[in-house]
Each structure stands twice: as structure tokens, then as C-alpha cells.
Amino acid sequence: MQNLSTFLFLALAGAAFYFLIIRPGKQRQKAQAELLTSIAPGTEIMTTAGVFGRVVTVSEDVLGLEIAPGVVMRILPAAVARVVVSPGDESPVD
To answer: What is the four-CA torsion angle of 24, 27, 31, 36, rounded to 10 degrees?
Structure first.
């Protein structure tokens, strides 16, 4: 009886760990990967530091982000927090 209750406790703890920690993390990773594949030149984004700008160049390792006319800074794609306006859209994306 003692072994069965210990096993059930461990099984419940493992299931709770999966559903509360691992699964949401995988969902966030998938959403971030989808976000990064949707970025093209002309996309207006916000970085994780709160910098807004328009993407002018896209490569696998670096994005060129125009933050003011003629001012382009290079950022890592992982620094993209969200897309504000997609190319061709007039309204901000929420």
C-alpha cells in the first residue's frame, strides 16, 4: 500500500511538472519560431528591449532594424518580442 501511494504521488508530480512547465515552454518556442518566420522586410516590430523599428534586412543570424530614417541597427532574431505591423497592413497587430 505504501509503495502504491508513493508511485501515485510521483506520477501525479511528474504529470503536473509536464503540464505546468514543459508543455507551455514548448508552446512558447513554437509561437516564437512562427513569429520569426513571418518577419520580412517592411515588417514593423518591437524588440524585447522595447525598441520599435521597421525591418529592412533579414538573414538567418541578424535582422537590420531601421529605428529612424537612415539609422539601421543590427539585432538578433531572438530579440523580437512582437510584430506591430506586417507589410501591407495598415492596422497594428495585437
So the answer is: 100
Whether this prediction's pTM lies above 0.70 is answered by no
Q: For residues 45-76, b (16+ Cβ closer than 10 Å) or e, as one string?
A: bebeeeeebbbeeeeeeebbbbeeeeeeeebe
Amino acid at 57: T
For the chain, 94 residues long, give each residue's pLDDT as a single digit of tens. Answer: 788 889 899 999 988 888 888 888 899 889 888 888 889 999 999 999 999 999 999 998 999 999 999 999 999 999 999 998 777 666 555 5
Query: DSSP secondary-structure letter at 30?
Result: H
CB neighbours (10 Å) of residue 6? 10
Place of cell 501515485: 8
Q: Are 41 and 55 in contact (CB under 8 A)?
A: yes
